[in-house]
């Protein structure tokens, strides 16, 4: 029960304006010593918990299979494009982008 209360409070704080740019590991991970397999939810679902407004026509679609082979430094989730394909949640770069903006889109898109 204590664990559920912590997760609930963490998610409420994250959704508020009081959340800072630097967040503790336990906002996304189940433990204080996180690993890639102890996430609170799957990739895109986890991102949308705090960014529910990031869906729709102005956002890059996620969940689709790319029709090309992109750079390996842009990882896929089960072969699909996910939020962390372009964003590194542990980065301190603007927008947490994996590549500089002028390189990111052309890494996969030629037009």
Overview features:
disordered N terminus; single chain; mainly alpha; 111 residues
Structure write-up:
- It is built from four helices and no strands.
- It folds into two domains: 40 residues, no CATH class; 54 residues, no CATH class.
- The chain is globular.
- The chain has 111 residues and is mostly helical.
What's the mean pLDDT score?
Answer: 77
User: Strand content of the residues, in percent?
Assistant: under 5%
Tally of DSSP helical segments: 4
Uncertain runs are 1-21
SSE class = mainly alpha
Name the helix and strand elements from N-terminus to C-terminus, one letter apiece: HHHH
Shape: globular
> Major beta sheet, specifics?
none
Total discrete domains:
2
Number of strands: 0
Q: Helix proportion of residues, in percent?
A: 25-40%
Distance between the ends: 51 Å
Radius of gyration: 15 Å
Furnish the topology, listing elements before pairings:
Elements: H1 2-15, H2 43-50, H3 83-86, H4 101-104
Summarize the structure.
By secondary structure, the chain is an all-alpha fold. It contains four helices and no strands.
């Amino acid at each position: 029960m204590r664990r559920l209360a912590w997760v609930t409070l963490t998610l409420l704080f994250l959704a508020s304006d009081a959340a800072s740019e630097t967040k503790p590991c336990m906002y996304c991970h189940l433990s204080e010593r996180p690993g890639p397999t102890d996430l609170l939810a799957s990739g895109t679902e986890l991102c949308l918990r705090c960014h529910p407004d990031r869906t729709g026509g102005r956002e890059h679609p996620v969940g689709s299979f790319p029709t090309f082979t992109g750079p390996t430094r842009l990882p896929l989730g089960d072969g699909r494009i996910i939020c962390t394909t372009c964003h590194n949640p542990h980065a301190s770069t603007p927008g947490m982008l994996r590549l500089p903006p002028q390189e990111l889109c052309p890494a996969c898109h030629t037009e």
